[in-house]
Amino acid sequence: MTSFVFTQTIYIEQEKREIMGLLTPMAIRKCNSKPSKPEFNLKSLNKNIIANYDMNNNCITFIGIQ
After folding, report:
1. How far apart are CA 34 and CA 51, in angstroms?
2. CB 24 within 8 A of CB 45
3. How big is the chain by its Cα radius of gyration, in Å?
4. What pTM did the predictor assign?
5. Cα angle at 30 between 15 and 50, to 5 degrees?
6. Which DSSP state fits 37?
7. pLDDT for 1
8. Is the pLDDT of residue 2 over 60?
9. What do you get for the CA distance between the two ends of the chain, in Å?
10. How far apart are CA 44 and CA 53, in angstroms?
11. Are the C-beta atoms of 20 and 48 separated by less than 8 Å?
12. CB 47 within 8 A of CB 33
């Protein structure tokens, strides 16, 4: 059971990175076309994406929080 949870955690983190890669350009354009580094913090975006794994349906959903 532990290895399954660990594998799922790695998969979830990989999915979060891929989603963040897709969201980053949109977030930058929406906020400011030329943001400085202090204006856009990718680490804070990562904290606002929560992964929910449904074991019954074997699917992962990502929820953005504010």
Report:
1. 30
2. yes
3. 14
4. 0.32
5. 30
6. G
7. 45
8. no
9. 32
10. 22
11. no
12. no
> Cα dihedral sign for 25, 31, 35, 36?
negative
**Annotated domain spans of the chain:** 2-64
- Token pair, residue 63, equals 């929820």
Tokens 């904290």 belong to which residue?
A: 47
Nearest Cα residue to 49 out of 25, 28, 18: 18
The token pair at 40 is 């856009």
Residue with tokens 């983190």: 13
Q: Which residue in this structure is represented by tokens 């399954």? A: 4
3-class state of residue 19 by DSSP: helix
Residues 6+ apart with CB under 8 A from 22: none
* Residue 14: HSE in the Cβ half-sphere, 13 Å Cα cutoff: 6
Q: Indicate the average pLDDT of the chain.
A: 64
